[in-house]
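Notes from hallway chat w/ T.B., transcribed later so I don't forget. T.B. wanted the structure written out for a chain they're using in a teaching module, and asked if we could keep both sequence and structure tokens in one place. Agreed to drop them here.
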Amino acid sequence: MPHPKGVSSSGNRLVTDEEFIALFPKIGATGIAGKYGHKDPRKVYERRRAIEERYGVVLSPPTRGGHVQQLDKHPAAVTLGIEDGHVLIGSDSHYLPGVVTTAHRAFVEFAREYKPKVIIKNGDELDFPTISRFAHGWEKRPTVAEEIEYTNAMLGEIEKVAPKAELVWPVGNHDSRLETRIATQAPELANLKGVHLRDHFSERWKPCMACFINKDVVVKHRITGGIHATRNNTVKAGRTVITGHLHSLKVAPVSDYNGTRWGVDCGTMADPYGPQFYGYTELSPLDWRSGFVLLTFNKGRLMWPETVWVSGPDEVQFRGEVHRV
């Protein structure tokens, strides 16, 4: 006996691809399963993956309460849509006047060669030890003016080789030291030009607290701490999360009913045993790695995030090859 039009052999009403694409971001797999009489939401997730591949779209599940979607539009956020192309992300440069690291030279070369649509420096570009609340001993430290001048020069090298790239700078805790110091010691200077870090750098760099890409990728300096932070960040956020702060340079995939997303640590673009860190690492063994991250988007979909690792003096490893820089 033939089944009525629009009804499956099990008696469930069929949902068209167009209906599925419209409904999934609003009510998710459980909602669709309930609406159309399916007992197993896993079948809905299988359908989602098939539709994403067929139409080249990304179907993100709804966020409970909608509060994360609102953060996309927050004035302290930068929101980007990337269909195809690269995003180059470096973090924790802690630029020290006079020192040019292997990671920085490689980053400039990757910016030149891969022509990323977006370049993100993910916080702690400056170190600012002289205005830190931590003691650093008697050794000479660069002044605030020297650090800003040198960091400008380093960022200028990146700007020069990537004239068409969008440049984004999520603030790091070290970057914040300048404004924190002024706000606490001289609050009467509020709104005076020069008290904000952004006043001292090219307007091409968009300052923010977080950068949201295609509604399922978040780039910010830090969320949680600890050795499992990369995984915990994406479990907590429900999205792929790219952070810095911990200097560990690694990718932690997380797979569940929503599919696969990644927790990524960008590592540090400084030398892990550089003079910037003597004051608090005391030359202890560090689970830090110098390098940066390259993201690739294909039809709006994030491919597996790739790391570029500084594996020796003047060399980095990428895609199974050693590159001299």
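Follow-up for T.B.: The chain is about 30% helix and 20% strand. Might be a good example for the class.
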